[in-house]
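User: Can you predict the 3D structure of Aspartate/glutamate racemase family protein? Sequence below.
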Amino acid sequence: MKIALMDSGIGLLAAAAATRRLRPDADLLLSSDPDGMPWGPRTPVDLTERARAVARAAAELRPDALIVACNTASVHSLATLRADLEPGIPVIGTVPAIKPAAAAGGRVAIWATPATTGSPYQRGLIRDFAAGARVTEVPCPGLADAVEYGDEEAIARTVAAAAELTPADVTDVVLGCTHYELVDDAIRTALAARTGGTRLRFHGSAEAVAVQALRRIGAEPAPELPRTGTLTVLHSGRPSTLPPAALGYREGRLLSGSDQGATVGR
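Assistant: Sure. Here are the predicted structure tokens for Aspartate/glutamate racemase family protein:
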């Protein structure tokens, strides 16, 4: 079993680690685009071409499924990637977990990149899945870049700024960018101070997309299996290894089998 994941950078680590935990026997292929990142500021057409190149590089190694572990790429490029690769390779997109957050019945904050915040795509999800709920969209400028480079000072600063924009009575927080799941502990700490220690519910997408990828290829979670799966890394189509910043997060260390690296926000 081989499952590929793609993103502009290390945002794919959360979904890759979730896949590794669910199926330790699965071979994982991580295809990212350091030559073209960040994708967020690009036009939809330009972004889609970068995403297609990253997807094609992964497809050449014949994975059983491809997870688009990037909210921005899923917004702009998912239909194109599916047209390119399916039905031969199932393509699984990443959607912010707005529906389960709203179903909890509290006040919802959606943390996302400035490009996604207020976008027709996100507003459509709110309309379709959170009608009647109190929802606040929280832009997080600079947070994804800070996470990508493991910049602790910038992570702390951008998380604090987003926390200030989050209502003090929030009950549910949607992490609407895959990078944010790598620093959810830092986000929890900042929001605990903001909300007076209220216990918040956090909604990410990593495990949900991992489960969906297994379902699409007819496999079941089996976390008890021995860890025999391999790890292959492509950087803009070139064979590579996990970047040093990845080892600053426990997801990266899990994937590498290493305990090295300083913990950044985790």
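The first strand starts at residue 2 and ends at 6. Strands lie at 2-6, 27-32, 65-68, 91-92, 107-112, 134-139, 172-175, 201-203, 231-235, 238-240.
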